[in-house]
Amino acid sequence: MKLVLLKNWLYLFGAAFLPLPWIILKFSAYHNHQILITFLSGFAIIGAAFLLSWIAEVAQLDISQSLALAMVALIAILPEYAVDMYFAWNAAKKVGYGAYAAANMTGSNRLIIGAAWAAVVFFYYWKSKNKTVVLEKSNRLELSFLILSTLYSFIIFFKRNLALIDTVILGGLFVLYIYLAAKSHQEEPELEGPAEAIAGLGKNKRRILSLLLFLYAGFSIFISAEPFAEGLIHTGKILKIEEFLLIQWLAPLASEAPEFIVAVLFALRLKPSLGLGALISAKINQWTLLVGMIPLVFSLSAGKILALPLYSRQVEEFFLTSAQSAFAIMIISNLQISLWEALIIFFLFITQIFFTTPFSRHIYSLIYILFSLIILLKSKTGRKNIKDSIFGLFKR
Fold this sequence. Notes:
Blueprint: H1 2-17, H2 20-26, H3 34-58, H4 65-76, H5 78-91, H6 97-128, E1 132-134, H7 140-159, E2 161-162, H8 164-182, H9 194-199, H10 203-239, H11 243-268, H12 272-302, E3 308-309, H13 312-331, E4 336-338, H14 339-352, H15 358-378, H16 380-392
Antiparallel strand pairs: 1-4, 2-3
Helix pairs in contact: 1-3, 2-3, 3-4, 3-10, 3-11, 4-8, 4-12, 5-6, 5-10, 5-11, 5-12, 6-11, 6-12, 6-13, 6-14, 7-8, 7-12, 7-13, 7-16, 8-12, 10-11, 11-12, 13-15
C-alpha cells in the first residue's frame, strides 16, 4: 500500500516538474533556439494539464458526479483554450491567425472523437474482452447537449463566420449544461493514482494543495501558450511542414494528452462509461465554450464588434468536424458503442490525416453524413433516445 502511495506521489511530482525547465528558460537570457522553446513549452502544457485533470478528479469529493465530469473535462482542456484564445486574439492583428484558431479548434474536436473515444473502447476490450461499452442513462444529458451544439455548428458552417451571436448561443448552451449537471445526484467517487494521494490528505490539506497546484498549473499555461503556439508556426517553417497541420494536430495532442490518459485509465479500471462520459463532456465544452469564445476574444482584441470570417479551408474543416460529430451522435444514440463502431470511428479519423485536399475533406464529410443517415433510419432505439434526450431537457 505504501509503495502504491509513493508511486502516486512520484507521478504527481513528475507532472509538477515538467513545467520547470520552461519556467527556468523563460526567465533566463536564452531565447534563441525555436525548436527547444516549442519542445519545453509544450511539455509545460502537458505537465500542467495532468495536474489540472487530477485536481478536477479530486473535486468529485465535493460536487455531483455529472458536474465533476463536466469540470474534469473543462479544466483538463484549459491548455487547449489558452492556445486557441492566443490565436483568436492575434487574428485581429496578424494575417493568418484566424486560420490557426480554426485549425486548433477543429483538430481538438476531431481528436477527441476519432482517437480518444475509440481508445476507451479498445482498452476496455483489451482488459475485459467485452466488445461493447454501455453508457449510463444519465448520459442522456450529455447526448442532448452534444446534439444541440452539433446542430448549431452546421449553422456556423452556412454563415461562414464566427460572430458574437455564436458566443451568446453557445455560451448559453454551456451555462445551461453546467447548471443541469450541477443538479445531478452526488455519489462518492473512487479515486486512484495521484488524485487518490491528494484526497488522502484530508479535507483542508487537499483543498490547499489543490489550490496551489491549480495556481501553479495556471501560471505554467499562461507563460507557455504564446511561445508554444508561435513555436509551432516557426517550427513548421523550419522543418518545411505546413503550419496549419502542425497546429491542427500537434497542439491538441499535447494539451489533451492527460484527458486522453485519464479516460483510458477509467477503461482499464473497467469503468469505461465514466471515461467515455468525461470525453463526451469534453466534446460539449469544446463545441460550445471553446468555439463561442473565439469571436468574443477576436472582438475584444479588435476593440470593436467583429465576426471572424471562415475562408474555404476553414469552412471545409468546420463542416468535416460537424459531420464527424453528427456521426458520433448516431453511434452513441443507443447509449452504447461497440468495438466495430470504434474501429470505424478511428479508421475514418486516422486516414483523413493523410488526405488533406479539399476534395478529400468533402468526401470524408459526405461519408460521415451518409453513415449518420443510415443509422438514423435503421435504429429505432437511437431515434427514441435522441427524442427523449432533447425533450427531457424541458422536464429538468
